[in-house]
């Protein structure tokens, strides 16, 4: 399967609530790293879709733009939105933009990672400044813990 078809198949399965359909896009040992919920191995992707995504939101839309791949890595810009079901934000529409970064092996996803502008969607949901600050703090911790960031933090 070409990368564009693979990433669209995976994202649209998530939108439909089809966790098994999303998981088949991953290689054995593959990991979905969600910007909010964390990392899920291939066998846990169906649970991520049902017990997190569709528990907390509905009316998903996930549009993929400009997917490119060299066969080993694929990138796709996206716009993602949903209506929240979480307490205090019920019915509010969140909209996010980001880039999916996929490590690929034999036409399947080995690692799915996101670089996303999360603050826009969370602000649309009405999250308080304190709650946004905690989320940004976790993102800072994850960023600064990565090996490729270390030289940017040193003198």
What are the salient characteristics of this protein?
155 residues; 39% strand; alpha+beta; six-stranded mixed β-sheet; 37% helix
Offer a quick outline of the entry.
The chain is 37% helix and 39% strand.
Oligomeric state as shown: single chain
Strand content: 35-45%
The order of strands across the largest sheet is: 2-1-6-5-4-3
Which structural class fits the helix and strand makeup? alpha+beta
Distance between the ends: 45 Å
Task: Specify the biggest β-sheet.
Answer: 6 strands, mixed
Which term fits the overall shape?
A: globular
**Uncertain stretches:** none
Helix percent reads 25-40%
Average predicted local confidence, pLDDT? 94
Order of helices and strands: HHEEHEEEEHHH
Q: Any idea what the radius of gyration is? A: 16 Å
- Supply the number of helical segments: 6
- Number of distinct beta strands: 6
């Amino acid at each position: 399967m070409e990368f564009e078809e693979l990433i669209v198949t995976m994202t649209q399965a998530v939108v439909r609530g089809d966790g098994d359909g999303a998981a088949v896009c991953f290689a054995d040992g593959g990991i979905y790293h969600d910007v909010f919920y964390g990392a899920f191995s291939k066998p846990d992707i169906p649970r991520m879709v049902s017990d997190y995504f569709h528990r907390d939101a509905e009316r998903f839309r996930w549009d993929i733009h400009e997917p490119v791949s060299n066969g080993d890595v694929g990138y796709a810009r996206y716009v993602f939105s949903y209506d929240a079901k979480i307490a205090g934000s019920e019915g509010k529409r969140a909209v996010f933009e980001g880039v999916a970064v996929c490590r690929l092996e034999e036409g399947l996803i080995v690692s799915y990672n996101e670089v996303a502008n999360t603050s826009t969607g969370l602000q649309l949901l009405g999250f308080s400044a304190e709650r946004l600050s905690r989320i940004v703090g976790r993102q800072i911790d994850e960023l600064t813990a990565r090996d490729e960031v270390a030289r940017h933090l040193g003198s």
